[in-house]
Specification:
The protein is of the alpha+beta class. It has two domains: about 120 residues, Glutaredoxin, CATH 3.40.30; about 120 residues, Glutathione S-transferase Yfyf (Class Pi), Chain A, domain 2. The chain has a five-stranded mixed sheet. The two termini are about 25 Å apart. The structure holds glutathione (GSH).
């Protein structure tokens, strides 16, 4: 059976699309993996009225009304199938490349059921605290005003403070979970021993780097354990820096894959 055609639209410096970029590099995918599986990556930007437009007009136009990342799977004779969440896109790619993990591609969930459960814990907690970061941001940061839909007059200090407390609590909880692996054992990954990088590292790093790059906010400023994790993980190739994301936008994904 012919493999489906897959198109993924990415706003390269955005929070959730970064997860996909980090994923592609961490997985050790090469342009040939993408072409074999008929995967087209399309960098997009925000046009007038907050619509998404492809940076390269020869590449497919983003469907209307989507958030990014967004993926469309096309099978002959079947209607287009849309996948709208970054987590689901990473899961789909994990399944697609699952059989190739034995070879040159990296395992990103974990080598044991326990390690995979830790990865799942980290992803779920990060997704929870991202919501609080968003609530804090739109109630306190002027850079959110152009897109938040909330005016400065509507900002709530009480809500921002509440969100900040929740963020602190989530980070303390995460530090409790990973302290032994990161501090005592010196692991690179939040998922523990024997794995270089996991989906858990990817989702946390995307949030940390995005917050600094776009809002000048240091998410891990009070986190001793996670600061150690960040120092190690941030040097890795998969943690694609802002300038390289922008370079990829112009010169294509070959820059890093
Ligand atoms: N939960 C979604 C969030 C996606 C999201 O909010 N993406 C932002 C850009 S980083 C976006 O497209 N915002 C505009 C919108 O939602 O209309 C995911 O994990 O993919």
């Amino acid at each position: 059976m012919a493999s489906p055609k897959i198109t993924i639209w990415l706003w390269m410096i955005g929070l959730f699309p970064r997860r996909i970029i980090y994923y592609l590099v961490a997985k050790k995918l090469k342009p040939t993996h993408l072409s074999t599986h008929q995967i087209t990556l399309v960098p997009v930007t925000w046009g007038p009225g907050g619509t998404l437009v492809s940076l390269d007009q020869s590449l497919p136009t983003p469907p209307t009304g989507i958030s990014v990342p967004h993926m469309v799977i096309q099978k002959p004779g079947a209607p287009d199938f849309h996948v709208s969440e970054s987590g689901a896109i990473m899961e789909y790619l994990e399944e697609l490349f699952g059989n190739e993990t034995e070879g040159e591609l990296a395992e990103l969930k974990g080598h044991t059921p326990e390690q995979r459960a830790r990865t799942g814990d980290v992803i779920s907690l990060v997704n929870d605290f991202i919501q609080c970061i968003g609530v804090h941001l739109v109630n306190s940061h002027p850079a959110s005003l152009p897109w938040s839909g909330i005016s400065r007059e509507e900002w709530s200090t009480a809500t921002a403070d509440f969100a900040q407390k929740r963020i602190k609590r989530f980070l303390e909880r995460l530090e409790d979970w990973v302290k032994d692996d990161i501090v005592t054992k010196g692991c690179k990954s939040l998922s523990g021993e024997g794995i270089e990088v996991s989906l858990g590292d990817i989702v946390l790093m995307a949030q940390v780097e995005y917050a600094r790059d776009l809002y000048g906010t240091e998410v891990l400023k009070d986190c001793e354990v996670l600061a150690k994790w960040w120092e190690r993980a941030n040097k890795e190739k998969w943690c694609v820096k802002m300038e390289d994301l922008q370079k990829m936008e112009k010169e294509g994904f070959g820059v890093l894959l």
